[in-house]
Design goal:
The N and C termini lie far apart (61 Å). The chain is mainly beta and 192 residues long. The longest helix is centred in the N-terminal third of the chain and has 18 residues. The relative contact order is 0.17. The protein contains one helix and nine strands; from the N terminus they run αβββββββββ. The protein has an eight-stranded antiparallel beta barrel.
Length: 192
């Protein structure tokens, strides 16, 4: 049996050893990028504060329910398993009519059976001023009934390429009847 195994294994090793690139050969899709030493890039820390409007109710809702929690989910009053897609407004002040700074686009889902703990994956898409068209990407856990919740900034685009940092979210207002919420976001981000 060992001999039969070697008859199969040995030819495969020969085939694969001839198809892999030789040491030092870069595949066609890989290209080294050299930084311009004459143009040093300075990393800076920026702080932004704005308000996230999650409007669940009414005709202009910014939330669409994608997945409902299972109907037999009697052991979890948290809504474990629910997923919502969002296109929430980001404003300068907590009032809905204040200056629009951008949108929070992505989704959140209830990821805890013990508490209302959300998994949030969203892009802050800025639409005004210097950062118009730039984005920040947030991915993290949001235990919504804690006073301050912290989530990581894992990247960005435009003026936020190579961004990293964190956000702190604190609920400004929440309507238990409609589910509508306004959340203050303080964003601390390192970027070039």
């Amino acid at each position: 049996m060992t001999g039969a195994f070697l008859y199969v294994l040995f030819p495969l090793l020969i085939v694969f050893s001839h198809t892999s690139p030789a040491a030092g050969d870069d595949p066609a899709f890989l290209q080294s990028v050299k930084l311009n030493p004459m143009k040093p890039r300075t990393e800076k820390l920026s702080h932004f504060r704005f308000y996230w409007h999650d409007k669940v109710s009414g005709p202009n809702s910014t939330v669409v329910n994608i997945i409902q929690p299972p109907t037999n989910n009697k052991t979890s009053p948290t809504g474990f398993g629910m997923v919502n897609m969002i296109d929430d407004t980001l404003t300068e002040k907590p009032e809905a009519g204040s200056k629009l700074l951008g949108r929070a686009q992505g989704f959140y889902g209830v990821a805890s059976q013990e508490e209302v703990g959300l998994l949030m994956a969203m892009n802050f898409v800025f639409c005004t001023g210097k950062y118009n068209g730039s984005t920040l990407t947030i991915l993290g856990r949001n235990p919504v009934f804690e006073k301050v919740r912290e989530m990581p900034v894992i990247g960005g685009s435009g003026l936020f390429r190579f961004a990293r940092g964190y956000v702190q979210a604190s609920t400004h207002s929440f309507d238990f009847k409609t589910g509508d919420a306004v959340v203050e976001y303080n964003v601390h981000v390192l970027h070039y």
